[in-house]
Automatic annotation (TrEMBL):
Gene Ontology CC terms, in alphabetical order: cytoplasm
Gene: recX
Lineage: Bacteria, Pseudomonadati, Pseudomonadota, Gammaproteobacteria, Moraxellales
UniProt xrefs under InterPro entries: RecX_HTH_2nd, RecX_HTH_3rd, Regulatory_RecX, WH-like_DNA-bd_sf
Protein name: Regulatory protein RecX
Xref: Pfam families: RecX_HTH2 (PF02631), RecX_HTH3 (PF21981)
Entry function: Modulates RecA activity.
């Protein structure tokens, strides 16, 4: 970690030697004791690697997200690309893990396959990574449970109320086939 008191002392020494005409008021404007510490710019080598590990310990990032995050602080984008590839080969970063976590998170939130694929696309993750899990999920049951939670067990006869349920489930990302089965399913149907 950086010791800001030592840096301040070194900075003060270097400014005195390079520009003796600098007024003391301008040095007071440089406040190193603020809550907001200056962000490190131009990281390379082991410092960039350490920052990458620090970022990855907080949460999982997709490859594209990690590249963008590290590129903000790195000197060389090529070094970032090499580092992220190395982290991916060593399994510190995995798009597969991120995709699986997003799938389970989105399913818990009541999202359908289309919304999940859209969320993956926004994070620049290929949806083929979780294609098997998407196929294995019973989307008809998911849509039905969501319909019951929002609208109850009754099967609506009125077109306006059916349309409202259809719009709700479509917005949540379910396919039309699953939606129709969910809104027409009777309580005792299995």
């Amino acid at each position: 970690m950086l010791d800001y008191d030592v840096l301040k002392q070194q900075f003060d020494d270097s400014t005195e030697s390079t520009s003796p005409t600098t007024p003391p008021e301008s040095l007071e404007a440089l406040n190193f004791d603020d809550e907001q510490q200056p962000k490190a710019q131009g990281l390379t080598g082991s410092r960039l690697r350490s920052y990458a590990f620090a970022v990855l310990t907080r949460r999982e990032y997709s490859k594209a997200e990690l590249i963008e995050k590290l590129a903000l602080y790195a000197m060389d984008r090529d070094e970032v690309l090499k580092l992220v590839d190395e982290l991916a080969t060593q399994n510190y970063q995995s798009d597969q893990r991120v995709a699986e976590m997003m799938l389970s998170s989105q399913k818990r939130k009541g999202k359908g396959p289309n919304r999940i694929k859209l969320a993956l696309k926004s994070k620049k993750i290929d949806s083929s990574l979780i294609q098997e899990e998407l196929k294995e999920t019973d989307w008809n049951e998911q849509a039905y449970q969501l319909k019951v939670k929002k609208f109850g067990l009754t099967v609506e006869k009125e077109a306006k109320l059916k349309a409202k349920q259809i719009r709700f489930l479509m917005y949540r990302g379910f396919e039309m086939e699953a939606i129709i089965k969910a809104i027409t399913r009777q309580e005792h149907d299995i």
